[in-house]
């Protein structure tokens, strides 16, 4: 029987990299979609050393066709996608009185719209028991006006996760947003590794106790 597979969208050196390592340590093979080849080149050997087979692609996930093709190639190669983890968001330091509509829509396309793209592309490779996870943020509830689009993205992606969970639960596929109620740091309760552990716990929650939002308070 083939090993389970996680595809990490928005792979980078922070939470997403920690998620990839956590799942690799648990016996998953890993697919990485990211924008920086150098970062992916650093992640791949680390994951391979943990026993994972690793596929990776540099892709702009707001490019609908390119993102769909990349996810489909990974699914076709592995024959399955058991976990789809979505991490991207745009951080733009602009308050609502200077943020333009095109800028807001550009950021939402990354932080919310791209989730639709990758889920729709992954769906044919997902079966009962598969899971979708999203890195959420307290910005959804407590936005900082200095980066107004981030709160809109995090509120929007959480709402979309609720809808995805309802739409897919009849097929045994569940979706969860983990709201990180703190600021990422190198030490303490909000290190990327600790957040990744919270995401692991959420994804592996028993069906009978499933919730489409989990709050990680440290």
Describe this structure in words.
The mean pLDDT is 97. This protein is an alpha/beta fold and 218 residues long. It has one domain (5-216): NAD(P)-binding Rossmann-like Domain (Rossmann fold, 3-Layer(aba) Sandwich), CATH 3.40.50. It is built from 6 helices and 7 strands, in the order βαβαβαβαβαβαβ. It is globular and about 50 Å long. A 7-stranded parallel sheet has the order 3-2-1-4-5-6-7, sandwiched between helices.
Short summary of the structure?
This protein is α/β, with parallel strands linked by helices and 218 residues long. The chain has helices at residues 15-25, 37-49, 64-78, 101-122, 148-168, 192-203; strands at 5-9, 29-34, 54-58, 83-86, 131-137, 174-180, 213-216.
Features:
single chain; seven-stranded parallel beta sheet; SDR family oxidoreductase; alpha/beta; 7 strands; NAD(P)-bd_dom_sf; SDR_fam; 218 residues; Rossmann fold; oxidoreductase
Set down the secondary structure blueprint.
Blueprint lengths: L4 E5 L5 H11 L3 E6 L2 H13 L4 E5 L5 H15 L4 E4 L14 H22 L8 E7 L10 H21 L5 E7 L11 H12 L9 E4 L2
Parallel strand pairs: 1-2, 1-4, 2-3, 4-5, 5-6, 6-7
Instruction: Write out the CATH superfamily name.
Output: NAD(P)-binding Rossmann-like Domain
Number of domains: 1
Largest sheet: 7 strands, parallel
User: Under the CATH scheme, which architecture would be assigned?
Assistant: 3-Layer(aba) Sandwich
């Amino acid at each position: 029987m083939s090993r389970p597979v996680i595809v990490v969208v928005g792979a980078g050196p922070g939470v997403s990299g920690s998620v990839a390592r956590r799942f690799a340590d648990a016996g998953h093979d890993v697919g990485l979609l990211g924008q920086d080849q150098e970062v992916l080149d650093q992640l791949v050997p680390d994951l391979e050393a943990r026993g994972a087979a690793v596929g990776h692609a540099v892709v702009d996930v707001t490019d609908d066709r390119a993102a769909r093709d990349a996810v489909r190639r990974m699914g076709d190669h592995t024959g399955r996608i058991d976990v789809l983890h979505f991490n991207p968001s745009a951080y733009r330091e602009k308050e609502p009185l200077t943020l333009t509509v095109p800028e807001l829509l550009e950021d939402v396309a990354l932080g919310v719209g791209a989730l639709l793209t990758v889920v729709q592309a992954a769906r044919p490779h997902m079966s009962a028991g598969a899971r979708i996870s999203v890195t959420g943020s307290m910005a959804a509830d407590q936005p900082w006006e200095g980066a107004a689009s981030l709160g809109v993205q995090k509120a929007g992606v959480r709402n979309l996760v609720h809808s995805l969970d309802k739409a897919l639960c009849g097929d045994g596929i569940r979706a969860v947003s983990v709201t990180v109620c703190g600021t990422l740091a190198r030490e303490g309760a909000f290190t990327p590794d600790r957040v990744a552990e919270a995401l692991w716990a959420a994804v592996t929650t028993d069906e009978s106790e499933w919730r489409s939002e989990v709050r990680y308070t440290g």
